[in-house]
Amino acid sequence: MAVSLLLDYPDERLTDITAAVRHERDLMPAQISEEIMIFCRTAEDWGLRALQEHYVETFDQRRRCALYLSYYSAGDTRERGAAILGFREVMRRNGFEMTSPHELPDYLPVVLEFAARADDGEELLRANREGLEVIRSALRSAISPYAHLLQALCLLLSPLDEQTLARYQRLISQGPPFELVGRTALDSTTGSRP
């Protein structure tokens, strides 16, 4: 739940959230607590405005940092809508009501809140583990303080198995699925390939 709260867009509640997370840190395993506390210290040092700017630059401007998990499994294809509905159905079956009607169910902070509240909520995270690894790797490369939150999350999950590692490596080398919907191989207006 701490990662869910801290990974969402930072707003005026940031000080209260970091204080609440600090208060609960003794309930967390030491390694996880350490990663989360590093993020909290950085967030406090930077201040709200700088953290908001970094958040937009990182998560809205970099595809590999996208916080919508269906992007990693379905990419920019027609399959993505079905993938998002799949997230919603899993949550609905478990009696989970989203607190924000404006967010999609595959938004990582929402999935983390679901995982914290539902008995088998961690399954949804495990099923999207390769996407989490892409985000973690991209945040590390960007030297983002948010990398500490993804590190804490991945420490909570079981180690990567061979199949998940292979899917992660494929995502890194090829990217998510992609299709040119409504485009031809040769763009008729310019006579060139898109």
Q: Can you put this structure into words, describing what you see?
A:
The protein is mainly α. Helix content is 61%, strand content 0%. The protein contains 11 helices and no strands. The protein has helices at 2-7, 14-24, 30-46, 48-60, 70-74, 79-93, 108-117, 122-127, 129-141, 147-156, 162-174. α3 (30-46) packs antiparallel against α10 (147-156) and α9 (129-141) crosses α11. The longest helix is centred in the first third of the chain and has 17 residues, at 30-46.
What's this, in brief?
It is built from eleven helices and no strands. The chain is mainly alpha-helical.
Rg (CA only): 18 Å
Helix content: 55-70%
In N-to-C order, the SSE pattern is HHHHHHHHHHH
Care to count the β-strands? Answer: 0
Instruction: Enumerate how many helices there are, as a single number.
Output: 11
Proportion of beta-strand residues: under 5%
Estimate the mean pLDDT confidence: 89
Largest sheet: none
Structural class: mainly alpha
Please state the overall shape, judged from the principal axes of the Cα atoms: globular
From the N-terminal CA to the C-terminal CA, the straight-line distance is 43 Å
**Uncertain ranges:** 183-194
Oligomerization state:
single chain
